Amino acid sequence: MHARTLLVGLAALTLTSASTALAAEAFRERLSVPLSDPSRPARIEVSLVMGGITVVGGGSNQEVVIEAAARAVEDDEGETEEVDPSRRGMRRIPNDTLGLEAEEKDNTVSIAAESWRQALDLRVTVPTGSSLFLSSVNDGDLVVEGVEGELELHNTNGSIRVQGARGPVSAATVNGGITVAFAKNGALAAPMGFSTLNGDIEITLPAALKADVRLRSDNGEIYSDFDVALERKPAKVEEERAKGRYRVVIAREMTGKIGGGGPELLLKTFNGDIVLRRAGG
Fold this sequence. Notes:
The structure is a single chain. This protein is mostly beta strands and 281 residues long. It is 1% helix and 47% strand. The strands form three sheets. Strands 1-6-7-3-9-11-13-15-23-17-22-19 form a twelve-stranded mixed beta sheet, with no helix packed on it. A hairpin with a 2-residue loop joins strand 6 (100-105) and strand 7. It starts with a strand and ends with a strand. The relative contact order is 0.15.
């Protein structure tokens, strides 16, 4: 099956006489991508360099809807820009192109944008049962609401927030917190991991949770609504061989079981607290 690719250049040339009125506002564009087989769950892949991604479940099983907004750029006060003398007096057309691209193939929708010059915010509406693979680098958060498939979320400078998850979740960022709330009647059926360098990790889990937990906070506290049966195991040794050196580190992890044990649940932060909440508690 051939892939369907949709390219959207959000340029000033697409604007009508309203260009002047919209110049100081974030420009928005809406794009619908039909799915090859609406009877099967969709896989959504979104990647940004600068900006935030919000994905909301509950849309039509027939399509994925993408809404893009370029953040308005504020000029620094007092800063002047040198203009070529031969161009003085000419009207400058703002270069607000986003380079948004969406491709669908076999129920996989890949979305990307060349968001190097300014931050871009995407809002994507998907079928509830979709699986998501999201990544951003700078100046934006990852937000997921009401999506029940597998979630793999990677950020660098921004937080991660999930509401109403049912499938397995993997969430990692560097500078930002992680907040994930699972559905009350869900069940942990696969290993999951949550990690950040600078930020708190707060996970709300079903009351009937059964899991093996690994918890680590180097500069923070650990709190839990659940009774955690801590285990006394030999300290985990992490080995590293690089550039002719051999390095051994004793991992500072707490291990235990909740509800008698089950799939592994890893929560790890360097600067921040870890909070395990019971849904409905």
